[in-house]
Each structure stands twice: as C-alpha cells, then as structure tokens.
Amino acid sequence: MERNAEDFAAKYGKVYQDMFRFALYTLKNRHEAEDVVSETVLDAWKGIEGLKDENAFRAWIFRILANKCRQKLKSYLNRAVELPADLAWRERDTSEDMDVRAAFYKLNDEERLILSSSLFGGYTGKEIAAMLEMNENTVRSLKSRALKKMEQMLSE
User: Where are the alpha helices (H) located in the chain, listed in sequence order?
Assistant: First the structure.
C-alpha cells in the first residue's frame, strides 16, 4: 500500500476506538493504553508500504498493537511499581476476588492477552485470531485451557 496520509487516516479512523479499547482492557491503564496506541500508529505509518492488501489493514494494525501490548506486559514483570494513590486505598472485600486476580496473573502473557480480549474486550475468537495472526481453533483452545488452568488454581 502506498503511503498516503488521507487513506491512512480514513482506515485508522475506522479502528481507533477498538484499538484503544483493546489496549485498555489488556493493559488496565489508560495512559499506557494511549501510549501503546500512539506507538502502534507511528509504527504502522512507517511500515504502511509493506502492507500488500488494503483490506487487511485492521488485522495488520491490530497485530502491531497486540505485539506492543505484549512488550508492555513483559516490561511490567521487570519493574516493581507502587500502586497509584487512587488504587492503593481500596481493599478487596473478598479473598475470592483476590484469588481470581492472582490466578489470572499466573497465566502466561499469551493466555492473559486472549482472555482479556475475549472477556473484557468482547472480541470473538475469529477477531482475536486475526489480531494475533493465529488460527481461530488455536485461540479457542488456548482460551479454554487458560480458563481450565484458572479453575484448577481456584479449586486448590
């Protein structure tokens, strides 16, 4: 695809809300989500000439976004972060809620990404497969296994 600002803006205009929602549900931080979407758009603009099929724009840009989100999630593991003041004061009412959260974070990055996209983002297996460049059956299988892992962790 030729680098054309108007064409790029038109295509981006159709997906920007979904991109932000995906990043927000994945990263759970508005500022991080905004940053990741901005980085994605910049990378997409730089690499737009490599896109052969204009109809694949959505899947292509979401693949970039998913990779950026993965990188950001990995960076979370490498740094200790103090909770923001607005979150630090809240205590969880039940240990069950904490157990579910702990089980979720014991999943690997890919499993968390697929579950959060599906459960929080409302994306279908087909949409997630397109974004992550995976087979739809693989996405369903990974989602199912992740849910079973969580169920097993919670039953222990």
Answer: 5-27, 30-47, 57-77, 85-88, 95-106, 109-115, 125-132, 136-155
1 in Cβ contact with 47 (< 8 Å): no
Quick one: tokens of 120?
A: 């929080």
Regarding pTM above 0.90, the answer is: no
* Residue 42, CA atoms < 13 Å, CB-side half-sphere: 7
Structure tokens at 34: 């905004």
For 11-29, write each residue's pLDDT tens digit: 999 999 989 988 888 888 8
8 Å CB contact between 123 and 117 = yes
